[in-house]
């Protein structure tokens, strides 16, 4: 489902965030992406979402090379991917409802359907009843959950999350992970970049460890599950 | 799952049509709401566009009125025909009757030598000097008004030559210059009106484009996030197109009011002026189609101006985070 073939990403300022990174994630898998700050986790996720283009190498999502997508195809492509951003990317002059509804509005979903789905998504992140509030009136953790609700509201086939639990207390972090697991259970491919050691230890999923611009370690889920003793 | 995972799920046609209509209606009303939320800025833009559209329209009104007033009012083109002094009154009447039958003649007024002298005496104040004359020095005169469709310089020249050729006629005085000048003036005014129309249409395009560019900058965050979430170019551009449409439409409506107001304001003076010339001329506005096209051209220019600006600017905004 997600395949990187010797992908290099060099930014305009010359920084090389990824250097010939290769890996493959199968459909329906759930994967943690770990690594030091600056290791290239966010860069990798942006390449998956076609927000950045690879400098060299090929990013293949669902058997299609992302570099080959036309402008309009990129837009349609992004609509099939749910993304939680490290810095939330909320619209601060719009109420919570509008923020969560945006992916559906962009996709041309009817108003009634939007209503229903936004409520369901907010319910999942424990923010039902906060629709009319503005992001500024929410705590950082609540804002993060609005971002998560927005990522899942369109029921994407690929869900990528950049530090989704960064500002959440351990209980909430586990709740959020439970949401991702629910989606994963129905077949959604989930890719989560995180520093959160507790979380990584608690959930026995495959880990890709980034360093020096490439995948340094690839630890499969089964091994972790065993080490936890089930 | 793996294969069709990323393919676009097709909703039924009816649902998509409903969705499309709903989105457009929403954006159409929503953009109007945004303009309403900042009334001063909106009124300012409407005024600029309104004035730009009203100017060529007012020139057009002027041309229309000159066209209608000039030739329509026969007096303006009156041709004076002085008959030979030997002719008596009955003969003069005969000539007048004959001329009335011509197609290019609307009216013939006969002023006999006696009437002419009486009038001259009355007006000139040379009464006593005239009494000293034994013979009436004035000839009988025919004042000829050409018919309205024979007021072109060529037609007038033809009529003048025909009159001059009559054996009873001594001299023809036709103020051809006046006719020629009016025609030239009208032609020039029409050109100026068209040229000004083109230039000001361009100005409206640029104004709307610039304003929409500003709108895009203030909503940059929203545009970037929408694009991150997969908004198409069309989706992102739509609100700006409607905003441009409302700018142009509002400006067009204002132009319409300006023209109506100007006509109503000037009309009484024109009527009074016409009355001084013994005419019951009424000032003309634009035809209904003229008013409609004023509003329509505003709306179209607004739509185009914002379309150009938005298409160009939005392509440059790519979310790199
Ligand atoms: N837009 C950009 N322009 C230039 N350099 C960038 C850009 N974005 C990231 N980089 C650089 O690329 C490298 C990888 O950045 P990235 O954001 O992917 O790291 P990260 O693993 O997500 O770090 P963190 O855990 O702090 O979020 C960094 O050295 C960073 O400075
Ligand atoms: Mg990061």
Task: Summarize the structure in words.
The complex is a heterodimer of chains A (230) and B (321). Chain A is built from 8 helices and 10 strands. In chain A, helix 3 runs parallel beside helix 5 (140-152). In chain A, a hairpin with a 2-residue loop joins strand 9 (206-211) and strand 10. Chain A has helices at residues 41-48, 71-79, 96-106, 111-124, 140-152, 170-185, 197-202, 221-227, and strands spanning 2-10, 16-25, 30-35, 56-61, 64-65, 81-84, 158-162, 189-193, 206-211, 214-219. Mean pLDDT of chain A is 90; it is low at 224-230. Chain B has 321 residues and is of the alpha+beta class. Chain B folds into 2 domains: 25-70 and 182-314, no CATH class; 79-150, Alpha-Beta Plaits (2-Layer Sandwich). Chain B is built from 10 helices and 4 strands. Chain B has helices spanning 13-37, 39-72, 89-100, 113-124, 127-131, 153-164, 176-218, 220-228, 233-276, 288-316; strands at 79-83, 105-111, 141-146, 169-174. Chain B has a 4-stranded antiparallel β-sheet. Chain B starts with 12 loop residues before the first helix and ends in a 5-residue tail after the last helix. The structure holds adenosine-5'-triphosphate (ATP) and magnesium ion (MG). Adenosine-5'-triphosphate (ATP) is lined by residues 11, 13, 15, 17, 35, 37-43, 86 of chain A.
Heteromolecules bound:
adenosine-5'-triphosphate, magnesium ion
Largest interface: A-B, 44 and 28 residues
Number of helices of chain B: 10
The number of domains of chain B is 2
CATH class of the largest domain in chain A: Alpha Beta
Number of strands of chain A: 10
The largest pleated sheet of chain B is described as: 4 strands, antiparallel
Q: How many domains of chain A, as an integer?
A: 2
Quaternary structure of the protein: heterodimer
Element-level helix/strand string of chain A: EEEHEEHEHHHEHEHEEH
The biggest sheet of chain A amounts to: 6 strands, mixed
Strand fraction band of chain A? Answer: 25-35%
What is the CA-based Rg of chain A, rounded? 17 Å
């Amino acid at each position: 489902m997600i395949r990187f073939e010797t992908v290099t990403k060099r930014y305009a300022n010359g920084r090389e965030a990824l250097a010939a990174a290769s890996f493959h994630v199968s459909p329906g898998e759930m994967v943690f992406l770990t690594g030091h700050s600056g290791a290239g986790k966010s860069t990798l996720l942006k390449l998956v979402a076609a927000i950045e283009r690879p400098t060299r190498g090929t990013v293949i999502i669902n058997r299609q090379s992302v570099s080959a997508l036309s402008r309009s195809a990129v837009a349609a492509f992004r609509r099939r991917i749910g993304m939680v951003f490290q810095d939330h990317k909320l619209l601060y002059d719009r109420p919570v409802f509008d923020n969560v509804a945006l992916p559906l509005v962009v996709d041309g979903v009817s108003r009634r359907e939007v209503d229903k789905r936004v409520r369901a998504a907010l319910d999942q992140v424990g923010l039902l009843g906060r629709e009319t509030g503005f992001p500024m009136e929410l705590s950082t953790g609540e804002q993060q959950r609005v971002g998560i609700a927005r990522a899942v509201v369109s029921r994407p086939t690929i869900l990528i999350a950049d530090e989704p639990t960064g500002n959440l207390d351990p209980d909430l972090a586990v709740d959020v992970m439970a949401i991702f697991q629910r989606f994963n259970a129905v077949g959604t491919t989930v890719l989560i970049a995180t520093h959160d050691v507790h979380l990584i230890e608690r959930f026995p999923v495959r880990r890709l460890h980034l360093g020096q611009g490439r995948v340094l370690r690839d630890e499969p889920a089964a091994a972790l599950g065993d080490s936890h003793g089930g | 799952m793996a294969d069709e995972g990323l393919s676009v799920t097709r909703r039924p046609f009816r649902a998509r049509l409903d969705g499309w209509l709903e989105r457009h209606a929403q954006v159409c009303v929503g953009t109007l709401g945004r303009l309403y939320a900042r009334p001063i800025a909106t009124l300012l833009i409407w005024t600029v566009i309104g004035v730009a559209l009203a100017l060529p329209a007012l020139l057009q009104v002027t041309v229309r009125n000159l066209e209608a007033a000039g030739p329509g009012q026969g007096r303006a083109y009156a041709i004076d025909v002085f008959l030979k002094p030997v002719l008596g009154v009955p003969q003069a009447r005969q000539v007048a009757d004959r001329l009335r039958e011509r197609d290019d003649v609307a009216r013939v007024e006969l002023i006999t030598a006696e009437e002419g002298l009486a009038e001259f005496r009355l007006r000139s104040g040379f009464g006593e000097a005239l009494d000293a004359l034994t013979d009436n020095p004035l000839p009988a005169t025919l004042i000829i008004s050409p018919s309205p469709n024979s007021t072109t310089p060529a037609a007038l020249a033809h009529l003048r030559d025909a009159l001059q050729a009559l054996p009873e006629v001594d001299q023809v005085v036709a103020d051809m210059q006046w006719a020629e000048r009016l025609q030239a003036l009208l032609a020039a005014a029409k050109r100026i009106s068209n040229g000004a129309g083109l230039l000001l249409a361009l100005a409206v395009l640029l104004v709307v484009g610039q304003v929409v560019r500003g709108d895009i900058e203030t909503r940059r965050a929203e545009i970037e996030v929408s694009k991150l979430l997969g908004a198409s170019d069309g989706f992102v551009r739509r609100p700006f197109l409607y905003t441009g449409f409302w700018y142009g439409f509002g400006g067009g409506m204002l132009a319409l009011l300006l023209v109506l107001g100007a006509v109503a304001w000037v009309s009484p003076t024109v009527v009074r002026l016409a009355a001084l010339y013994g005419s019951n001329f009424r000032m003309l506005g634009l035809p209904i189609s003229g008013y409609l096209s004023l509003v329509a051209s505003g709306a179209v220019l607004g739509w185009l101006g914002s379309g150009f600006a938005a298409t160009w600017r939005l392509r440059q905004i790519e979310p790199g985070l």
